[in-house]
Design brief:
Blueprint lengths: L6 H4 L3 H11 L4 E3 L3 E3 L3 E3 L5 E6 L8 E6 L6 E5 L12 E4 L5 E4 L5 E4 L12 E4 L5 E5 L2 E5 L7 E2 L4 E5 L5 E2 L1 E6 L2 E11 L9 E5 L2 E6 L22 E6 L3 E7 L7 E5 L5 E6 L6 E7 L14 E3 L7 E3 L3 E3 L1 H6 L6 E3 L10 E9 L6 E8 H10 L3 E5 L8 E7 L5 E3 L5 E7 L1 H42 L1 H13 L20 H7 L8 E4 L4 E6 L5 E6 L8 H12 L9 E7 L2 E7 L6 H5 L10 H21 L4 E2 L8 E3 L5 E3 L6 E2 L6 E3 L2 E5 L5 H6 L1 E3 H17 L15 H10 L17 H14 L10 H9 L15 H7 L9 E5 L3
Parallel strand pairs: 25-33
Antiparallel strand pairs: 1-10, 2-7, 3-4, 4-5, 5-6, 7-8, 8-9, 10-11, 11-12, 13-22, 14-15, 14-21, 16-17, 17-18, 18-19, 20-21, 22-23, 23-24, 25-26, 27-28, 29-33, 29-34, 30-32, 31-32, 31-34, 35-36, 36-37, 37-39, 38-39, 40-43, 41-42, 44-46, 45-47
Helix pairs in contact: 5-6, 10-12, 10-15, 12-14
Length: 821
């Protein structure tokens, strides 16, 4: 066969070409005399990479790509025709005598081709798959085209990301549209390489920055782990800066380690390493890793931390803007407590373990020392902060920020030092406080040492004189591990008892640093048991209006309940006046901490909110119908809905719950307890509760989840209605979609939102008999059946709500009212 004939003429002889390639085996080059057809491939010299046609995922389309050979899953690093797939297996790759590589379809039409900058004739160009995974086209020893100049969604060793200032070409990664479609997706990973700016990476969705990675510290990007394989082979990130180009590239010993960094279709950067034993890809790191990785989650001069609540806090020397204190909106950030006047006494406060601010408004001087950097910043009244970003340059390198400090966070490892400019008075006060703290700690240390010496002397004398004292001391210590038998709780053989000693140890003696919340029962602490398990520990407060009855009630109720949407009780402790409950730890805390925070609520898109609604509904249905005890919760509210690390909801706090028999059962009580804005009218006014009381609370909760607004305290400039009245008004006017939170408009299915509002209004109807059961609610949420028209909700206006709130209360949220019968 004359391989120099036009491709269309060769197509009838396709069978002969296949046989020819099978005889020749897989070669690592393509010449003008040879072509590749679908079903054949070429392999790099080290047999590590392979080039050929493939179909991603469940797609039937065919693409020419390069991948790591024999790995699971297939590690595709480059796709040629990602925008123009083949629809069958008749694809052919051809290299012409001008050095252009082309893909032809079954009709002989070109669907993709490379380009060369110089036209060559009769010089026998060769396309070769190098050991690095780079497909190059060479003439003699000159490379005229290479696949590494056209990155896809994946970065591997020896690939470059950056910018050529002569050609203007930028090298960046672009995600696939989906796992089955390698065409250009929504997300990019690019590196800022502007002159005079310090490099950092951005993950963007279109033109919007989603995540900032960096800045570069000379070895890695701050906050990311140092990548070292189990073979002690280091993977190094190098930054190359020349007059014409600036780029990053990874280098490693390719005979020992294979890795790839991929921007996936959902916008996450996944760094994976190949297990050489089983050839599986192991994920080392994912960015964004947590909510603090979301760009601009906190405002200017705020730092984000995953170990504090709220996550966003003003830097020392700064305070929340007045407008934010009233609105709860944190996106506007903080302002200086004391304005700068560019006086000679102004100085800098050092913040350690930080992710340095966005360097878009910073200037970099590579030759200045850290001391010179401080002088340069102080001499310029517009300079707000400085840092040395390069930890490998021996203190050389200077970043100066001008304007607001954006996207700052605290790291637990690999952070950097940031020096922030403060007014002289502010700096003096901070230094004075620090001085007094150090002085007080020194005095306490001396005092403690003296006291210990005295204590041990007295104790030793007492013990020698009276052995009975020693027995008493031992007895008291032993008591910390004993169960208090004065408090009898029935039927709890299966529930573990924890000693007060173990609980104190798990919470660092109830340290304020471990406190994660507080409710009507008392404070809640995060603890770590001896086996490493994280738990939430709820301790009865001395000032709480709840007591032994509520404690017993919660233990008995929840110990016998098992459902994926109910929080799990792991154990309890009763010791003297101490009453403590130990629960599974919920990483995302309570729903209200996210839903009603204008910044953090951005993380709750509509699919997450709908999942939370469905989960709460299933949990209540279980309580009402499917559990052994049949429970009316009586205190359903956003604060009592906890979220695990996958944002699945779990109902908590059963201190006010009551057992009942039969779905039609209603009960009367002289003591009305609950939370303003969630209790039903028949319960608040007459003390009558039933399963329909929980349905009412769930309806309020649904409308709060959809709107992102609290029912209690809701205000609107055009009327005095509460959230229920506002939703009812918009529903009657055919404008129910206006109830939805602006944060979910980009992610919601409008019909699902409208149906949720409709079901919510059915749940909050004034007459309990009109409200659906939870079984009906669950069915309405998952079906597309026609819904009945809701009637006017209870507590329609703010005035009605205030009438209910006139009852006596024992704290801001809970109500108690006694009725004479």
């Amino acid at each position: 066969i004359d391989m120099n004939q036009p491709m269309v003429k060769l197509l009838p002889h396709i069978t002969s070409i296949v046989l020819l390639f099978r005889i020749c085996n897989s070669l690592d080059t393509i010449s003008v005399q040879k072509n590749i057809i679908d079903g054949e491939a070429i392999v790099s010299g080290n047999a590590k990479f392979e080039l050929g046609f493939f179909s991603p995922g469940s797609s039937k389309h065919r693409y020419l790509g390069i991948w790591f050979k024999n790995t699971s899953p297939r590690g595709v690093i480059w796709v040629a025709n990602r925008e123009t797939p083949l629809t069958n297996t008749l694809g052919v790759v051809n290299l012409d005598n001008q050095g252009i590589l082309s893909i032809f379809n079954g009709a002989g039409k070109t669907i993709w081709s490379s380009t060369s900058f110089v036209s060559f004739t009769k010089v026998n160009p060769v396309a070769q798959l190098l050991d690095t995974g780079n497909l190059v086209i060479k003439v003699a020893n000159s490379v005229i085209w290479q696949s590494f100049d056209y990155p896809g969604d994946t970065l591997i060793s020896d690939m470059k990301l950056g910018k050529n200032f002569v050609t203007g070409r930028e090298l960046y990664l672009t995600s696939w549209r989906s796992a089955d479609d390698p065409s250009t997706g929504e997300y990019t990973l690019s590196c800022s390489m502007e002159e005079g700016r310090y490099p950092q990476f951005y993950i963007k969705k279109g033109s919007i920055i989603e995540t900032r990675i960096g800045p570069y510290d000379g070895v890695e990007f701050a906050g990311l782990p140092k990548y070292t394989s189990n073979l002690n082979t280091k993977v190094l990130l190098d930054m190359v800066v020349r007059q014409q180009v600036k780029y990053f590239w990874y280098t490693s010993n390719l005979t020992k380690i294979s890795f790839k960094s991929t921007v996936n279709p959902s916008g996450k950067l996944e760094v994976s390493r190949l297990n050489n034993q089983n050839h599986d890809w192991m994920q080392d790191h994912t960015t964004p890793l947590d909510y603090c990785d979301n760009y601009g989650l906190c405002g200017p001069y705020e730092s984000c931390s995953t170990t504090t609540f709220p996550a966003c806090k003003c830097l020392k020397g700064f305070e929340l803007k007045i407008a934010q204190l009233n609105s709860g909106n944190r996106t506007s950030g903080c302002t200086r407590s004391i304005a700068l006047d560019c006086g000679p006494e102004e100085g800098f406060l050092k913040f350690s373990s930080m992710k340095l601010p966005d360097t878009q408004n910073a200037v970099y001087y590579f030759s200045l020392s850290i001391q010179e950097c401080e002088v340069a910043c102080k001499d310029n009244c517009s300079c707000t902060a400085y840092a040395n970003p390069n930890t490998t340059a021996g203190g050389i390198g200077c970043l100066l920020w001008f304007g607001d400090l954006i996207d700052v966070r605290v790291y637990s490892q690999n952070g950097q030092d940031l020096h922030v400019r403060l007014a002289a008075i502010e700096l003096s006060e901070i230094n004075m406080v620090s001085h007094y703290k150090r002085k007080r700690m020194l005095i306490m240390a001396i005092s403690t040492s003296s006291a210990l010496v005295l204590l041990f002397t007295v104790a030793y004398a007492c013990i020698r004189k009276n052995r009975k004292s020693r027995k008493k001391i031992r007895g008291k210590r032993y008591a910390l591990h004993k169960k208090n038998t004065d408090v009898q709780i029935e039927d709890l053989e299966e529930l573990p008892f924890f000693s007060l000693n173990k609980i104190a140890k798990a919470t660092d003696n109830f340290s304020i640093n471990n406190k994660i919340g507080e409710g009507g029962f008392g404070p809640v602490y995060k603890g770590v048991l001896e086996n490493g398990q994280e738990v939430a520990i709820k301790r009865l407060s001395e000032t709480s209006k709840q007591g032994l009855d509520e404690f017993k009630n919660e233990v008995i109720c929840i110990a016998k309940l098992q459902h994926r949407n109910l929080v799990k009780l792991l154990g309890y402790c009763v010791h003297g006046t101490e009453m403590i409950l130990i629960y599974e730890y919920m990483a995302n805390k309570s729903l209200d901490s996210l839903l009603f925070d204008e910044t953090r609520s951005q993380t709750l898109d509509w699919p997450k909110r709908l999942n939370i609604i469905h989960g709460i509904a299933r949990g209540i249905l279980y309580l009402h119908q499917d559990s052994r005890l049949q429970i009316i919760h009586r205190d359903l509210k956003a604060a009592n809905i906890l979220l695990d690390d996958s944002m699945n909801p779990k109902i908590s706090d059963f201190g006010l719950a009551r057992k009942f028999l039969g779905s039609g059962t209603a009960a009367m009580t002289k003591k009305v307890v609950g939370t303003y804005g969630y209790i039903s009218p028949e319960y608040a006014v007459h003390g009558r509760f039933s399963i329909k009381s929980d349905v009412f609370s769930f309806g309020v909760l649904m409308l709060e989840i959809v709107s992102g607004k609290k029912n209690r305290g809701f205000s609107h400039k055009d009327h005095n209605d509460n959230l229920l009245g506002h939703a009812w008004r918009l529903y009657k006017e055919g404008r129910a979609s206006e109830v939805m939170d602006a944060a979910i408009k980009g992610s919601c299915n409008v019909s699902e939102v409208l149906r949720s509002i409709h079901v919510g209004l059915l749940c909050v109807q004034h007459n309990a008999n009109d409200r659906p059961t939870m079984l009906s609610v669950v069915l309405m949420l998952v079906s597309e059946s026609v819904l009945p028209e809701p009637k006017q909700p209870a507590f329609f206006t703010g005035e009605n709500d205030r009438e209910v709130q006139s009852v006596s209360s024992f704290d801001e949220e809970m109500i108690t009212q006694l009725y004479a019968r």
